[in-house]
Amino acid sequence: MSAHPTGVFEPKVIAYVCNWCTYLGADLAGTSRLEYPANVRIVRLPCTGRIDFNLLIKGFEVGADAILVSGCHPGDCHYTSGNFHARRRWILFRQLLDTMGFDMNRIHFAWISAAEGKKFQHVLTDIVEQTRRMGPYAAYSKICEEVSC
Amino acid sequence: MLEQKLRQTCRELLANGTVKVIIGYGAAPAGQATRAVFITTPEGVEQLVWNDRCEANLVAYLKRPEVRALGKPAIVVKACDERALVVLQQEAQLERANVFVIGMACDGIGAPREAKCRSCEDQVPRFCDVVLGEVTKPADAASARWDELAEFMKKSPEERMAYWQQELARCVKCYACRQVCPLCYCQRCIVDKNRPTVISTSPSLKGNFAWHVTRAFHLAARCAGCDACTRACPVGINLRLLNQSMAKATEENFQCRPGTDPQAQPLIGNYATGDKEEFIR
Amino acid sequence: MSRIGVFVCWCGENIARTVDVVQVAEASLQFPGVKHAAHYKYMCSEPGQSLIRDKILADRLDGIVVASCSPHMHLKTFRGAAQAAGLNPYLVEIANIREHCSWVHQDKAKATAKAIDLVRMAVAKVRRNNALQAIKVPVTKRALIIGAGVAGIQAALDIADAGYEVVLVEREPSVGGKMAGLSETFPTMDCSQCILTPRMVDVGQHPRIKLYTCAEVESVDGYVGNFKATIRQKARFVDIKKCTGCGECWNACPQKKIASEFDYGMGNRRAIYIPFPQAVPARPAIDKQACLKLKKGVCGICAKKCAAGAINYADQDQLLEEPIGAIIVATGYQLYQISAQQPTAELSGYGEYGYGQYKDVIDALQFERLVSASGPTGGVIQRPSDGKEPKHVVFISCVGSRDNAKGISYCSKICCMYTAKHTMLYKHKVHDGQAHVFYMDIRSGGKNYDEFVRRAIEQDHARYYRGRVSKITEENGKLIVRGADTLAGTPVTIEADLVVLASAMRPATGSDDLARKLRIGYDQNGFLSESHPKLRPVETNSAGILICGACHAPKDIPESVAQASAAAGKVLVMFSHKEMQRDPEIAKINESTCSACFACVRTCPYQAAEKADVRDRAGNLVKRTARINQGLCMGCGTCVAVCPSKSADLEGFSDQQIYAMVESLL
Amino acid sequence: MTDIGYYPGCALQGSSNDYERSVRATLQALQVQLQELDDWICCGASAAHTINHKLSVALPARNLALAEQQGCAQLLAPCPMCSMELIKAGKALADSPALRQEMSDIVELPVTGRTQVLNLIQIFQQIGLPALKAAVKQPLEGVSVACYYGCLLTRPSALLAFDDCEQPVSMETILTALGAKTVAWNFKTECCGAGMTMANEETVLNLSHKILSNAAAHGANCIVVACPMCHVNLDMKQAAIEQRHGVRHDLEIFYLSDLIGLALGLDRQTLGIDRHFVVKNGNSACRL
Lengths: 149, 281, 666, 288
Description:
The complex is a heterotetramer.
Chain A: E1 13-18, H1 22-31, E2 40-45, H2 53-61, E3 66-71, H3 82-99, E4 107-111, H4 117-134, H5 138-145
Parallel strand pairs in A: 1-2, 1-3, 3-4
Helix pairs in contact in A: 1-4
Chain B: H1 2-15, E1 21-26, E2 35-39, H2 65-68, E3 73-77, H3 79-90, E4 100-104, H4 115-118, E5 130-132, H5 147-153, H6 157-168, H7 176-179, H8 205-218, H9 228-232, H10 240-254
Parallel strand pairs in B: 1-3, 3-4, 4-5
Antiparallel strand pairs in B: 1-2
Chain C: E1 4-9, H1 21-28, E2 34-40, H2 46-58, E3 63-68, H3 71-84, E4 92-96, H4 98-102, H5 108-126, E5 135-138, E6 142-146, H6 150-161, E7 165-169, E8 184-185, E9 190-191, H7 192-205, E10 209-212, E11 215-223, E12 226-233, H8 248-252, E13 258-259, E14 268-269, E15 272-273, E16 285-286, H9 292-296, H10 301-305, E17 318-324, E18 326-329, E19 333-335, E20 361-363, H11 364-371, E21 392-399, H12 415-429, E22 434-439, H13 449-458, E23 463-466, E24 469-475, E25 478-485, E26 490-496, E27 498-503, E28 505-507, H14 511-518, E29 545-547, H15 557-575, E30 579-582, E31 587-589, H16 599-603, E32 609-615, E33 621-628, H17 638-642, E34 648-650, H18 655-663
Parallel strand pairs in C: 1-2, 1-3, 3-4, 6-7, 6-18, 7-10, 18-29, 20-27, 21-22, 21-27, 22-23
Antiparallel strand pairs in C: 5-30, 8-9, 11-12, 12-17, 13-14, 15-16, 19-28, 24-25, 25-26, 31-34, 32-33
């Protein structure tokens, strides 16, 4: 996927989204025919509360050039508070990644509701375009190739 | 002098049956750190020592089944070790009443004095059954707590990534950092789970990154800052940096210092509606 | 070795136009574990489903992936098909190649590549799916209906008449909602109260309807079939069991000039009042903001007048719990409150129409009270400022509606019709009067609707101007309405005596709060979201919670009533079963590896993760562990993410499934 | 002491120099220092965009480029035509990298469009009601004023979102705080005829007559404006209006800065009010 026939760099974006808000927002983008780049692969989870930090690392391990984590707006969680728990973990996890020198421009968080098909389109387009400008995440793919011992 | 007092206290505890075992520090060859000793008889207390090479965080032994099998323990802790004890208490791993805690006022350990001691804020344990000794040598500068981290964060992200790639390439996945950590008490570590393999166990940089991210984040908002992991690392990876980065973020975002309040609810597993979210679009 | 079947749907042209379905099917044959791949024009149709069923049987498939539309659309359908062929329904996964692919991409090569990836992920997942058994739970055969307007009333009567108990909650002192205040109804011009009040009486007297008025839903816990609703019965200060509704109290109340909510401020009521004479229950309530006794401790006349001793100044709010199986939300609408404080800055505007500044600029619901025989003027059309009969009345449609600048881009749907009705009612009462209507478009789709509008224009000679009004000003007791007639291409100025604004319909105040309490969705306008716009129009995405009436979108009375009966029908389907099945996609704990740190117990939003002991046969404690209460778990998986040893996992979204999906992208 | 860039535009240094005196005097009294843009040129006004779209962007773009070059983060343009043209161009520049490049090439200066352009009302909003109130020496008692915004001050609404475009209240808010009474009236945002005053005076006399009549009918003893064009039509043409319609309006027309200046204790000469055509010199109902 990263090598498109035209030779243009096509970023690989993985989106971990909750089933009730962002997944439905993406559905709405579909029913509204809102076009966005075909670079994203959505992984549907019930709730942002289910999204484990290891999944972000796994995403980079499989070659994601950018990752989006997205769910319901605060107060709108289908499970009342999963997104609040998630948000607290993200605050700390981002710091850890930053300390380790991960490229923070490749890790995105968004609240996108079921009604925000347009926002889904905009966020995705923005992420893909930004990532396209930045190029492949070479620093991490290097980690994933090397055998150290 | 203080050592005598410690031995006397322990002798009594064993003699009057308050505890079955003393977990303390025992002598080591010159120039080496002291070692853990497990003393079950009043006579045995003569093995106990107290000096600036009492580096280990003995709380780690409380999670061991073979130690638990010895009966109710008394444990010798420094202020930093004690924070781990408090976290264990919050996480239902420890009935406080089932442990007798002997706190040692601490001037700092290590030769040379360890980084954590130079900026120690506590020095005297706070929640012990008995506290022995007093501080004679205050910490240099508690305010300098984040200096090492701040210096490191001055590097660009690319430089930081390069640093960790270089450092973690040396990791041999011995898991000593996990074994000595009093808070790594999982009966089955995530790294040993293979369906699915969340963390690659092959000796590769990929697996090493995944492991160290996981280790550090599992300790986020929990780590007592005893630096046992960093001392234990046979290849000298500065894990303290990662722990510190989590400690600083915890303190700055949630005004929380893990292990300083036995009544507090653990940070992870709770939330506030006002937690910051400027990074979320 | 797995035997997975992949079924790629064309969705007519919807998918096939932008995704090469043949290529997707061929590519999926290469994925590990795939035994069979096929494509078909409409997988959800009977031939499509039978294709799936036949292949499951013929190839002994042990998992299937349907590459089609969103799982929110047809996952249930295909699970049903699998089950019919003897395959456990939870061994079905959907690859969403329509909403997430063909509908949002144009480049066929890219869309096809993406579709192949999506199928690859779904195959990777389904290979790790477990056969699950639905959890059976008993059904509490009682329905909660929130809002007792015409929709809530209809739903309540349908369910109660079918033999089940209904708890009907209304926040006003009487049932009836907006319809009780309307004059006559389009297109038949029958009197609103004449058709509604018998229904209101039925609701009040029905042995199986438990009616709460002056009450709101405080919280709802539990899940479909087994909700627990907490209802706040607000202090009414009148014991409606003792009260006989004789009227001595309100006739004696000295506070006479309280603006009546029911008359939208066009008339007055007392501090102790029934909102309108036909109220159900026909029992008064005391307005604590207006009552002298409650405010200042003086007066107390109503208590002295009350022979039944029903007045209780010490009344307090009470919280009452009701076990409930299904919920219908029918909270209705309000009109766009021009000149009032708006929830967002974007919504503010239309100050140039002078609503709230000129007494003779009123909104449509106020006009309804003005022409209603039971209204404050007894149905005589008098303008508010001086009581004179207005000879020129200007009606303005789309005030707020279809105005992107105000953030209300939708059409309020009913205004064209009621405005036509208003011109006719006006003309029938003021024969020498002239009605003027400014409109954007006339939208009169519906049985006998357009005929009705033609009558207003042709028989009752309402003058219609296609154009907007720019400004309303007041001069010498006249309202100067300046607008444009875009068909004639001229500016129009009308000296009017009364102006009626057809303000936009907006969801009732607090409906977003209620939606959050019920965990159902709402759109950017605050209207409640249906599960599917065509096929599940009264269901929400939360099982057991239904919506009807104008809380869902602007709609008129016949539509609201039809939807209410539809929602009631859905409830009755549910109540026709002894027990119902719950989705088994819930959390589980591996108790042998659990270290009992109880992070999950602290985190679980439903208190479904509990502390438990593992004991040997002799009853000795072996270890402590966390354990999931299957009755309470809703399957959010928050416990999985906080479990450091990954002893917690979630069926349907297990770590094995999710990691396999992600790794398939390598 | 705040420094703010100042773009006078052609009117303020020509026919409406009374306006410039008023703006300068009042802002100086409020410790706002105006730094006049060196080498400013015409904003293009209504003429440029009817002839050539590119020219209508390039003219304000050059002025914005100068503001950036001369270090003005904010730029006051008291004429609403100027402020609107500058804001419009600024937004277009900020939104489009291609346009920025094109305009930088044309005006031979780098331009980003990030300068914040303020009209006269906005500068007083920025100073804030507390500061204004604190500086009052002579409250505007007896002043019953109709606030007249005209067609340009609040439009287009998407660009000039500082007030409601159809029913603005920002001048009322300021003047009420200074002790004036403001009247509710009907012609706040109607057209005065504007530039038609040259080509078709009759239209102007009719439109402006309606404005003056309505203000008076609602109890105003003066009108306040924030536009040189409005002032011309309501003040200079008032005699012609009266003659044509056979009425006596006798309404003083003030600039917003006039009334604020009077409240701050400045005299009529300093503010340039003595140059107005309708002058009452203290004998009027508004006792100033």
